[in-house]
Amino acid sequence: MHARVTAILVARNGAKHLERTLEALSRQTRQPDVVITVDCGSSDATAQLLAAHGPTHFISADSDLTFGQAIAAAVRVMAPPESDSEMLWLLAQDSAPEPGALEALLGELEIAPSVAVAGPKIMDWRAHDYIHDVGLSMTPGGATVTLVESELDQGQHDGMSDVLAVDAGGMLVRHSVWNQLGGFDPGLPSADDALDFCVRVRLSGRRVSVVAAARVASAGDGVAGLSGSSRGRARRKRLRVARTAQLHRRLVYSAGWLIPLHWIALVPFAFFRSIGALLQKEPGAIPGEFSAAFRTAFSGSRVHNARRRLAETRTLGWGSIASLRLTNAEVRRRHALKREAVLVGLGADRPEIRFFASGGAWTVLAAALVGIIMFASLLGAQNLAGGGLLPLSSTPAGLWASVGYGWRDLGLGFVGAADPFAAVLAVLGSLTFWAPSYSLVLLYFVALPLAALGAWLAATRLTDRGYLRFTAAALWVLAPTFLTAFSAGRPAAILAHLLLPWLFFAGYSAGRSWSASATASLLFAAVLFCAPSLTPALLI
Question: Is the pTM of this model over 0.70?
């Protein structure tokens, strides 16, 4: 029987990509029999471009529709399929297929009746010779993994065929299977919908294949409606949505007796993963972790409906897809490769410092003026006393003599090890070797600008926004523990406060530079000499 293909093109404010996609669709060597376009409340020229293409059906939908819901709206205007030879071709605004893409996908489904879903090789939108991604899988914990991504296409993956899942953009699926499985899960708003659908296809006894000869260019943000940017709000939203999808699928796929345990662990796991995000220098992921945990915890009806659909269509056990999932060894190997890429400088997407352009100089200058005003009464002083302050030895030799092991003039006196902070004072006093005690006077004057500078530079490792860097610096300078240390005369606390941002700044690059690693080690020791109570926190 002659195959019948219905192409469904979904777009939302995608005019910048849509013109190329529509042109590519019109140049197919095997034209789709029906074209349905869905405009999801676009405010640009998307609707006009879709209508001008002359589709069989044009649907104007709400802007809050997900990709799966938009596909479902298009399927509702179609007649039920009469055979397995009727196909749905799912396209997004940035899914530009090469001329032979549909013909190659259709050939895979026509020669192999067991194949229910065929996916293309997704190529980069701009660099036509680079693979954007090919094939999807899962880790033992259920996290989504792209099998191939960001590689120069040299035909090295053209032998890939059976996979666990394929991307939604460019997917060709049998209409009868789509209806039987109920399409994409509505509980997965804009991530992992294709992965979940393909998993259900596999568990229903059918196959999912990648067709290397079918190439579709993608900008990476059309299907999910999320920007492919690696910074700012778009990245935080993408991380939140991906984590929400992972938690939803975990509850759907788990055995019934495990659901209460998973539910109870949602928020505690979010807390521990947030600590991990801090250690990986991704603080922007922390709000998304808790948002995903709470949203999943209160999505009982969505989880129940998804579990019911899975139970109704599942004919095979989870062991049937075990060979298509990544093993723990493979996951560790991929993580090792990513760490190696970081070590050689790849993927180290850190914001530029731009000290003068983004307000760093003004921040430090303001802190210096505040410091001069606060400690104006100390102008002309040669040493400080009171609180925890005592005049230092009159010579650098005397300072260094007190470092290490020897006579301690405390109480009745004893022979023993020195306080580690003595080494810090020896270094500090040597800077003003003509009058070591004067170094403490200078410390008071330079403390505020140095604190502002250190906090501002530490913030540059986390954000490229000037106002966030300024806020971090201001909060660090105005920290109550810091200001109290001045009035109490506690130089150790002042120095620890000054050194901590510099430790973070150097530690951020320690994995890529021996000099940064050595600097971080020295700063680590200096902070512990000043505040030994920080040892457990810094070791963790």
Answer: no
